[in-house]
Amino acid sequence: MKPAQIKPPIPFDVLEKIDIRVGTIELVEDIAASEKLVRLTVDFGDHKRKVLAGMKQERSRPNEIEGKQALFVLNLEPKRMFGEVSEGMLFDIGYADGIAPVLAVPESDVPNGTRVG
What percent of the chain lies above the pLDDT cut of 90? Predict the structure, then answer.
C-alpha cells in the first residue's frame, strides 16, 4: 500500500468540533435489505445508540466485534439508510486505502463515553 497524500491543513478549532468517543459494541445485527450495512448497538456510558456500519463485505462474521470498544463520531447529523437511522459513525482503519478495515480501538479499556483529545 502506498499512503495517500496528507489532506490540506485545517484550523485546530475545526478538529475540536468533532465529538469522538469510546463506546462498547454490545450487539451487531444484520440489515437484510442492505448488502453492506449492519446495525450496531453501542453503549456510551450514559446512553446507547444505533450506529450503521458497512462491514458485511469486509467481515465474514460481523458479530465478532461484539464486546469490543471502538471509536465513534457522535455529533454527525443522523442519517437514514434502508429504513434505519444511524446516530453516529464508527471509525475504522484501512477502508479508504483499499485494505481490509480494522477497528480504531483504545490501547486498554476505558470508561464508555470517554472523549478523544
Answer: 87
Residues 115, 15, 3, 87, CA torsion sign: positive
Q: What is the mean predicted confidence (pLDDT) over 60-85?
A: 96
Across 56-84, average pLDDT? 95
Which residues make Cβ contacts (< 8 Å) with residue 13, sequence separation at least 6?
Answer: none
* Matching CATH number, 24-103, of 3.40.50.170, 1.10.3860.10, 2.60.120.10, 2.40.50.140: 2.40.50.140
**Separation between Cα atoms, residue 23 and residue 110, nearest integer Å:** 9
